[in-house]
Every structure is written in C-alpha cells, then in structure tokens.
Design a protein that fits this description.
Length: about 100
C-alpha cells in the first residue's frame, strides 16, 4: 500500500537520521512505529501493574500516617511466621 505523507522539516530530518542510524527505509520505519504504538496500547500503566500484583497476591495493607513509626514500630506492628502485621490498624484485601 502506498501512503502519501507530508512531513515538516523537523520530522523529515528525524526520519533521515533514523533511516541512517537504524539502516531501515521509510516503509520499515512506519511499520515499526505502528507496531510500537499498537503494542503500547496493551501495556498496563504503572498503577495498573501495581494493582494487578496486589490483586494476584490478594493482599493490600495500609495504615494511617504515624509520625513516630520508626521509633515505636513495636507498638504498631507485630511479627509472626507470616511476616509483619498491624496491631491497631485494619488490613484489607483486594478483590
């Protein structure tokens, strides 16, 4: 398929540099750009990746801001064979 395209001088210069650097012709560069844009549509954003990990593990812990946590962590947190847990704050799971 042939596609007539009009580029401004900046993009024309960038295209020339890419052709030389990557040793690809214009058609190959356009195909590559289309593939990369299409792939990016399906890549999760950072927040979505984090949420997916939390959903996979089924755990999300949280507690309000405690200014003296580094000094008095034993008052707020407990350690057992499952790891750290909160003594006074509720923990929630991600459905």
């Amino acid at each position: 398929m042939q596609i007539p395209a009009e580029l401004d001088s900046q993009h024309l210069e960038k295209l020339g540099v890419l052709e030389q650097t990557l040793k690809k012709n214009t058609s190959e560069l356009i195909a590559f750009a289309i593939d990369e844009i299409d792939k990016a549509r399906y890549m999760p954003m950072e927040g979505e990746r984090v949420l997916a990990i939390l959903q996979k593990t089924g755990y999300l812990g949280g507690m309000p801001d405690v200014t003296d946590l580094s000094e008095n962590y034993k008052d707020y947190l407990a350690w057992d064979d499952k790891g750290w847990s909160a003594k006074v704050f509720s923990l929630c799971t991600v459905a």
